[in-house]
Each structure stands twice: as structure tokens, then as C-alpha cells.
Amino acid sequence: MESVSHLKVSMAESISIVNQAILTAEVGQLDTEVLGPAFMYQLNQCINLLYGNNYTKCLSLVKQLLDFNWEKLNTGHWKDVHLSWRYAYSYLSYFKSVCQMKGFGDDQHQGIQLAIKTCDMGLLMGAPVLDNILSRYASKLSKLLNEGKKDMSEKHTSAKRRKLDDCDVNIDPHKAIKRVNCPPIVTFYEDYMKTETPVIIEGCMGYWSAMSTCRWSLEYIKEIAGHRTVPIELGSKYTEDNWSQTLMTVCDFIDKYIQHPDLKQTVGYLAQHQLFDQIPELKNDIIIPEYCCLDNEDDETDINAWFGPKGTISPLHHDPKHNLLCQVVGSKFVRLFHREQTPFLYPLKGIMSNTSEIDAETLDFDKFPLLKKVQWLECVLKEGDMLYIPPKHWHYVRSLETSFSVSFWW
Q: How far is C-alpha 132 from the chain's CA centre?
């Protein structure tokens, strides 16, 4: 890390982003009838205080409004929260981050770290405003904290793929999922999508930067995303009674749950998180597979990150969309059941009806006698593999080592 004086010089470009955004901060996208005249008045007061460089007073007012806004976001069901409250949370998070960055005098490191965390809270709880200023701002500030570090590009590029020699899974050849090498789109559609047939696609990820020029490793992920705050699941699987969630930086997550885990603590997992919307630098390292364009009427693909240590488990469940599960780092054991097996898989009742109550890896035929009728497929998903999972197909996933997967849903 270079000196604070160097950091202050480097911040000039970042501050220009702040000033430009303030000048264009027309608080649009907000329904004044939903938010109320008193809230809107104070929100505009925040902008006036920023114009006047009164960061201390602005920060105090912003914190009050954020507390009020937080209550609105956490009252009732998330889907029923009016979008204006999410927009407002993003504006306020942005204003708070500006005040934090400019209000720490010589201690710019602390100001930047706080500002990054504030931006991430806005990205997690709010909605995009000002051309997604929170994402751009957080990315710029993260780069500032990393300036002066030794160039690690050579290390990332030359990262070796470790041979999977400690696998604790033996795959039954009669149940193994078929493997194919980069099939043409038409072949994939006719042979697998239309017939709802799972398949492992090889040879289609080698040109990703994450697999080559910017080879993903713990060091690389910490360098690119280490200062960013993300949601972490605590507990080996979400069906456990002691399952919970917390927020922490990526660096803290890697240090506590991957590199130096306490054997007595629960498992931590960054699961089903839209990390690539939050941190575009990582999204630049992956490419949406061309297969995702098939039968994609909305032309939208949901991209989620799955990052954690050995032993993380996604219990047996199904999803409504087509899924390409791409393995970037490490390996996973996957067991699949066709949707026609549903009557024998003991789905839970209520809102978790897409999840089974069985342990799909250790089948208890005495407790669940219908399991004697089920058929399944399985595999060890290795680095560079894409697994196609058809809609409503039940799947169970367990990481065999430190693992980073990317799922594409369409």
C-alpha cells in the first residue's frame, strides 16, 4: 500500500466522479406521494448541504433518513416494498458515502473503507440510480485502496489447476451424467433442452478470463473484491434450524471461513448472490454462454455466484428456469433427479415446496420408503465444466473443496 499522501493525489479522479454526480443529482424516480412531503423535503436538504460542502451536517441528516428508510424496507414482505423506497435508499447511501469519503481529513483509508461499505449496502438494499453510481463509485474506491500493490497479473495467469486426487465420491458409471465437448447450439437445443436431458459441456469456458488471463484464485478475488461487503449464509445448508445470514467483507469471509476456518464454527457460504451486478470487475472475467439465448423470450439471464469452502451443501431442490452451472474453481458433487421423480422425493410443505426433506446423498429408505422407486444421475463437476440442469429437475450439490461456481438461469 502506498502512502496516504499518494492516496490523496490518486483520489482526485474519484472525487471528480462525486462532484459530477452531485451536480446531476436530480432526485427522480421517486414517488412523492409514497415517500411523503416531509421525507422529500429532508432529502432535498441533503443535496443542498452537499452543494454547500457541509458534510458533517449532511451526514447527520442522512443517517436519520436512512434509519427511517430502513424501517420501510423491512416492514412486511420485500416484494411489497414500493420501489421509491429502494431508490431513496440508494440516493441516501450515495450521499452518505460522499460525506464519509470527504469527512476524514488525513485518514482517507478509513473514509474510503466506510464509503465502500455504504455503497454496498445501497447496492444490496436499494435500486440503481444515477447510471448505477454506487457500483461505479465503489469500484473506483476499491481500486484506490489497492493502488501501490505489487502487480499480481503474472501470478493470476500462471495459476495451476490442481488435480482432483482427494475426491471422496465414487461415481457409478451407470448413473454418470453424459459429457459432450462444446456442442453446436442446434445440437444442444434438440438433444438436451427439448428432451430435458442433463448434460455436462466441456471445452466452452477456456476462453473466459477467469479461466485464463485473470485466473480466479483466492488472492485474485481478494484483490478485486476484498473490500466489498456481501451477504454470507451461515450453516451447511439452508434447511437447518440454525441457518442464518450475515454481512461481511469478502476478505473477512475468505480469511475466516476458507483460509483459516475454526473447526468448531459453522460453515460460511456466499450463495445465490448477484455478485456480478454488485462488482462488474468480476463480471468482466466471465461470458454468458451462447446457449442461454435459446427459448429466452425476455432476453435476460440471471447470473449468481456460489463461493465457499469444502463442505457447503445446497439441499435437494428444483428451480423454475433452465440452468447452466459453471465450475470456475474447485469441484462439486451433484446428484440430479428428473422432475417425474417428484412424488417420491418428499417435498416440503408451504413456501419451501421446491425443497425436499431428504438427504439426497445418504438415502434413508426406512424413513422415506418411496425413495426405493427413484432413479438419479450424478457427477463430479470439475473446473471448466458446464452442467445443464433442465427446469424443475431436482438437484443436490456439495462442494468437495474450496469452490467458485457461476449459475446462469434463463
A: 17
